Amino acid sequence: MMKLLEKLAGERAALPPKFTGKAILMAGLGGMIAISIAALMSARLDQLLVLGSFGASCVILFAYPDAPFAQPRNVIGGHFLSSLIGLLVVSQLGVAWWALGLAVGLAIAGMMFTRTVHPPAGSNPVIVWLVASQGAFSWQFLWFPTLFGAIIITIVALIYNNLTREGKYPKYWL
Predict the structure, then answer these.
(1) 20 to 30 Å CA-CA from 105: which of 43, 78, 80, 134?
(2) Could you tell me which residue ranges the HPP transmembrane region domain spans (predicted)?
(3) Which of 135, 149, 147, 153 has the alpha carbon at shortest distance from 61?
């Protein structure tokens, strides 16, 4: 028990460096633009293209664009795979509490196995489960909003990050 308490105290490492005011402004603006474009396209196409997890994706895409989790392969692949797993689990096992846990665990393992880890995508099976629990299960969720929404925010990140930053984005594709 004492060893656990010692571990819970943490390593007492220093906080990460502060973001500059410019970096804060530019990341916030990038996220605003990405979600606004996805929402506008949703309205114009009369097709849902926004997920709650995309807000968290924007944090990674615009505040940490050099991180592995921010690369297009991870954003698009992670969202797609996690929603697919959520849909498969719900379609086969229903909306039981344990099925939700299984779906999230399988999504994490699947993203790790395919090297498409994108932490916000871990919430997609939860979103699928919540929608299905309201009687609105649909395989279309995999395409709209998941895949096309993830592609939209990634395209915005590609353009925005390369126009506003010194570094290149992405670091890798496949």
Answers:
(1) 134
(2) 17-170
(3) 153
